[in-house]
Backbone:
């Protein structure tokens, strides 16, 4: 564990923390470091233990409340609308900020988090970017902005928010190598693959356990359909990142994607059973729930029988049916409900989203629900009911807008696959022809993909029978 910064050390970096407690400052640093590195310091009791020690050292430390509340909110697994404890914690944070002298930077952090909590994602990002203009090495502002841009599908903004501050991250600054990994992900999502890979490898040369940089390279291999290099890379580096328990599940998800690409479904299921499913049950994090839902759904699209695996996911997933914090979550929760044929809860998810979307206010996600979230959800329902023509009618017109629901290019590819499978199964000759066109497009953009080649063979067989 690296030395943790006390009050003076934070002041020397130009990031003053308004507390006189060195212990509080050190526990703030411990929490921040674990968040950035996707690890848990077991000696401190992980992030939860670090926050407990932080609050004990100085219960009125505003930035302590900012990081504690921020990590809950950014996790997207709950909201102030449904969680009274979180709502109370946010009100306490705001009240503390108004009752004590804080730096302008700290006040802005409170303001940005308050905006995020009420669904005003774009405005929150504006404030975090404002902080970074004056304090380019404020990695909490950088990470929160990165996550929120990701949720909105703002890939260019996600990349550029790091590009603006990257020159200030000299090697002597704690966590500087991790900024390379953060930057590399934005570059990768905007198709600067060579530059992204170079930065990720630079980060890994400094710290081979940087799971996020591993994650960038996993994405690059996926987007190039370079399954051989992808499988080799994950196997060779596994021991370096598997201890990063907050991200390991997602890296295993990428590993399993390569096997699905190859058509080696047994290998994909083995990774799922040994790593992805257990991580979901142990961490209960929203990211792990999404990984589980996405993996099982993709396997089912490929015609794989997943047995009773949905039954293990559903107790965790269905708790979030009425959250509606992030549309991307809603769609994945729906996958699990359809997986267990829970029509009642499926209806609850759709109905509660419809009701909230009638008066979205400034909530970014609810504002997108009528034109994107609800049609996408309905498309999944129609596909599950065997109404393939209706699925295409709902999904095809919004395919280029789906970027706005967030997630990575690799994660959202499940919707492209869904559209192709629906078109393949349509009675309409026009939609069957659409399936062929979509596959030609896919093959042109990502050549030599075994998954695409399998689907092309399938559509050819459909046309031959027609």
Residues:
């Amino acid at each position: 564990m690296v030395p943790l910064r006390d009050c003076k050390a934070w002041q020397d970096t130009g990031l003053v923390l308004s507390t006189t407690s060195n212990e509080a400052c050190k526990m703030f640093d411990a929490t921040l470091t674990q968040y950035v590195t996707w690890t848990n310091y077991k000696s401190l009791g992980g992030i939860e233990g670090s926050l407990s020690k932080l609050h004990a050292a100085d219960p009125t430390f505003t930035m302590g409340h900012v990081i504690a509340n921020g990590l809950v909110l950014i996790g997207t697994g709950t909201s102030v609308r449904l969680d009274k404890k979180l709502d109370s914690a946010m009100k306490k944070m705001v009240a503390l900020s108004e009752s004590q002298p804080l730096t302008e930077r700290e006040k802005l952090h409170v303001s940005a988090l308050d905006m995020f909590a009420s669904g005003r994602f774009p405005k929150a990002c504006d404030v975090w970017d404002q902080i970074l203009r004056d304090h380019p090495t404020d990695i909490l502002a950088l990470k929160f902005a990165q996550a929120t841009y990701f949720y909105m599908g703002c890939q260019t903004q996600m990349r550029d928010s790091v590009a603006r501050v990257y020159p200030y991250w000299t090697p002597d600054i704690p966590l500087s190598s991790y900024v390379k990994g953060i930057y590399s992900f934005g570059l990768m999502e905007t198709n600067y693959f060579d530059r992204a890979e170079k930065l990720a490898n630079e980060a890994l040369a400094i710290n081979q356990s940087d799971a996020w940089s591993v994650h960038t390279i996993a994405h690059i291999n996926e987007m190039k359909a370079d399954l051989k290099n992808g499988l080799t890379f994950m196997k060779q580096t596994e021991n370096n990142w598997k201890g990063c328990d907050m991200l390991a599940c997602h890296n295993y998800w990428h590993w399993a994607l390569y096997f699905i690409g190859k058509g080696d479904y047994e290998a994909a299921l083995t990774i799922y059973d040994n790593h992805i499913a257990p991580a979901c049950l142990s961490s209960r994090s929203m990211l792990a729930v999404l990984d589980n839902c996405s993996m099982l759904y993709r396997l089912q699209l490929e015609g794989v029988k997943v047995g009773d695996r949905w039954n293990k996911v559903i107790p965790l997933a269905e708790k979030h049916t009425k959250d509606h914090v992030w549309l991307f979550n809603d769609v994945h929760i729906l996958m699990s409900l359809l997986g267990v044929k829970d029509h009642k809860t499926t209806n609850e998810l759709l109905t509660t989203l419809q009701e909230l979307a009638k008066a979205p206010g400034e909530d970014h996600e609810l504002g997108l629900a009528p034109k994107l979230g609800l049609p996408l959800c309905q498309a999944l329902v129609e596909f599950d009911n065997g109404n393939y023509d209706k699925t295409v009618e709902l999904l095809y017109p919004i395919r280029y807008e789906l970027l706005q629901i967030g997630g990575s290019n690799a994660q959202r590819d499940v919707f492209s696959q869904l559209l192709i499978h629906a078109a393949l199964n349509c009675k309409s000759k026009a939609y069957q022809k659409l399936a062929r066109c979509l596959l030609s497009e896919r093959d042109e953009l990502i050549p030599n993909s075994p998954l695409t080649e399998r689907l092309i063979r399938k559509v050819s067989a459909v046309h031959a029978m027609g």
